[in-house]
Amino acid sequence: MNDLTDYDTIVLAGGAARRLGGADKPSLSVGGRPLLDRVLAACPDAAITVVVGPRRPATRAVVHALEDPPGGGPLAALDAGLRHTTAPTVLVLSADLPFLTAATVQSLLEAATRTAGAATPGGRSAPHDGRAPHEGRAPRDGRTPQDGAMLHGGAMLQDASGRDQPLVAAYRAEPLRRELARVRAEHGTLAGLPLRALMAGLLLERVPDATTTASFDCDTWEDISAARARIREHGNVLDEWITAVKAELGIELDVDTAALLDLARDAAHGVARPAAPLTTFLIGYAAGQQGRDVQELSDRAAALANRWAAEGAADADATGAGTKPAE
Questions:
Q1: Residue 191: how many CB atoms within 10 A of its CB?
Q2: What is the pLDDT of residue 234?
Q3: Is the pLDDT of residue 120 over 50?
Q4: Cβ density class 68-103: b for 16+ within 10 Å, e for less
Q5: Which tens digits make up the pLDDT trace of 135-186?
Q6: Exposure of 209 by Cβ count < 10 A (0-12 exposed, 13-18 middle, 19+ buried)?
Q7: Which residues contact 96 (CB under 8 A, 6 or more apart)?
Q8: Distance (Å, whole) CA 236 – CA 211
Q9: How would you classify the pairing of strands 49-52 and 164-172?
Q10: Rounded-to-integer distance, Cα 271 and Cα 265, Å
């Protein structure tokens, strides 16, 4: 086990959702799946997953926690979740990220586990290639006059406009605990404090949002509508639908959409239109029952459909010419 696989996740799923009229935002559906489940799907390898907020159903086992006081804000919620974690790296996510991907999570974990030299103090942004800029670089002993000892705190996502996303981030656990303790000592409480009170003492690498959508969060009904519209776009709808079906059925299977569509076309044209869905069902069933490769099974079924069609064409030609059908 290494730092890329030894991580815990904290999902902040509280908040009043005032701009949504008080709706239970993590339970709102995008593409037929609750926002919370979509976020959980992006971090399936977490050793422990803590969901902080009111208890609600989830697609996999999670630890439920509640901030003190309830509704006490992001720092109180983060502290409540951190008490249940043990891994050296903690992935911290909000529960309203419909397009967060496992690839983005992996990028954050990779950046968080690099050496302290990759980040810069005082909230300055370090490039994702690990080269710290000269101006504002941390002294070699890792200390700054105003902040005392500063450790590499992890990595956070940066959206396309350059805004930091501290709730799409992978933090080193010990610096995070230390800074929460510092903020509590300075203010006497964590309740009601903004996230920026925590950020000043952490050295964080910025990871650009390569997808441009992983950082998209749903704060309003307009955001929810935009997310629902996006998954129905021509280039996204099939992948989104297949992912939703797999999640609903509780299966994990690599699906080559193009290969299956080609197979469905061959079956429909070479056999009969209803053969298309029946054939793709049988491919999936065989793959699940026998543990075989979907591509291999699709190729075999497509070859069968082509032989079937060739026979039909040959017989039709022979009947028209009054000759013996092909053997």
A1: 18
A2: 77
A3: no
A4: eeeebbbbbbbbbbbebbebebbbbbbbbbbbbeee
A5: 333 332 333 434 445 568 999 999 999 999 999 999 999 999 999 999 999 9
A6: buried
A7: 25, 26, 35, 39, 217, 218, 219
A8: 13
A9: unpaired
A10: 10
Structure tokens at 221: 């009904």
φ/ψ of residue 76, rounded to 5: -65, -40
84 contacts 77 by C-beta, under 8 angstroms: no
Looking at the chain, how many residues does it have?
A: 327
User: Three-state SS for 164?
Assistant: strand
CA gap 75, 144 in Å, rounded: 24
Q: What pLDDT shows up at residue 129?
A: 42
Contact 87, 210 (CB under 8 A): no
Residue in this structure with the two tokens 């904290």, named with its chain if needed: 10
Q: Going by DSSP bridges, is the β-strand pair 7-12/49-52 parallel, antiparallel, or unpaired?
A: parallel
b/e 276-294 (16+ beta carbons within 10 angstroms → b): beebbeebbebbeeeeeeb
Asked if 94 contacts 11 with a C-beta cutoff of 8 angstroms, the reply is yes
Q: What is the pTM of this model?
A: 0.76
Interatomic CA distance for residues 22 and 220, integer angstroms: 11
Neighbours of 211 (CB within 10 A): 16
Q: Which residues contact 275 (CB under 8 A, 6 or more apart)?
A: 267, 268, 305
Beta bridge pairs of residue 91: 9, 170
What would the mean pLDDT of 94-99 be, rounded to a whole number? 95
Surface-to-core class of residue 196, CB atoms within 10 Å of its CB (0-12 exposed, 13-18 middle, 19+ buried): exposed
Residue 78 pLDDT class (50, 70, 90 cuts) = very high
User: What secondary structure letter does DSSP report for 126?
Assistant: P
Single out the residue of 162, 208, 180, 160 nearest to residue 83, CA to CA.
180
- 110 neighbors 192 (Cβ within 8 angstroms): no
